[in-house]
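Lab manual, section 2.4: Encoding a predicted structure.

Procedure: take the sequence of the chain (214 residues), apply the prediction step described in section 2.3, and record the output as structure tokens. A sample record is shown.
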Amino acid sequence: MKKIGLLVLLMLALASSVWAQRDPKALEILNAMSEKYQNIDAFKAKLVYKLENPSERLNETFRGEITVMGEKYRLKIGEQEIINNGSTIWTYLQEVNEVNVDNYYPEDDPMAPAKIYTIYREGYKYSFVEEKKQKGNVVQVVDLEPDNKDEPFFKIRLTIDKEDRTLLNYKVFDKNGNRYLWTVSDFDPTLKLTASHFEFDPSDYKDVEIIDLR
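Recorded output:
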């Protein structure tokens, strides 16, 4: 009887662990959010990016905006602009008026804007954290943890508007104590864009120096 009792306890513990790793409530929230963004052709939003490291007394804030269409995106943050057409990526540095051009490899960019809405589907555990009020709205918080323990980060925390399923912010926790927080505002899903919006046009940047790294 004692052995049977221990076996039952072990099975319950394992079942509880699996439940926490693949929380059905978290999955429902993530699927609803993902479906919302998959049905949007293009969108634009303002961003606030914060880098924090309490032990290093690091606290930096940058503001910008992003435009996304499928796998393509155009991000302005601080004094740099990143333009990605899905195969080529341009990084423009305003301070020195130069742009670096390189091939784009999606597998090297796990935090790409389009991926954050689907990243949970493979290689991650997910769990529901809480439901709370934030600035008058009800939000739901979900944590993602990578199955691959070699990843430089150990958790991504998503905050999602319960009513309209908009991703309000996400926070990446890395193993060096850094916390990267992206907060979204002024979300506009009504844009009509063409692929040319996600190409770097030198004529828009007077006397820009082009450094081709391909």
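Check your result against the sample. Residues 6-20 have pLDDT under 50 and may be disordered.
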